[in-house]
Design brief:
There is one protein chain. With 123 residues, this protein is mainly α. It has a domain of 64 residues: Orthogonal Bundle (Arc Repressor Mutant, subunit A). It has five helices and three strands, in the order H-E-H-H-E-E-H-H. Strands 1-3-2 form a three-stranded antiparallel sheet. Strand 2 and strand 3 form a beta hairpin.
Length: 123
Amino acid sequence: MLTVANNEGVSQTQLVELTGIDRSTLADVVRRMLKKGLLQRRRTRDDARAYAVKVTEEGAKVLKARDPLARKVDERILSGLPASQRDRFLQDLGAIIQTLNRLREKESAGKSADAPSTQRRGA
């Protein structure tokens, strides 16, 4: 939800790229947040098949209420690193996630290309 809030109008495909969450898992998470009224979704102008996702007013309230807790968790997780190295670590981690996503997409594309084509049988 934070990624959506920071990238208003982001498509679900872009969310996959930004978060590193599997496409089907992300679609399920978005669907549940829509039902709870935390997100809203609409068709994009550029691609009628794609959806743009936005945080609702209720979603913004939930994010604001959770922010102090999230900051404490982040601080605890990163406490093993000197403060001067934390930003670099997070940037490197983001780069690793992007690389893994690209590799997964290439692997998926390769599997599709390797799938046997259907042929007509002669009589």
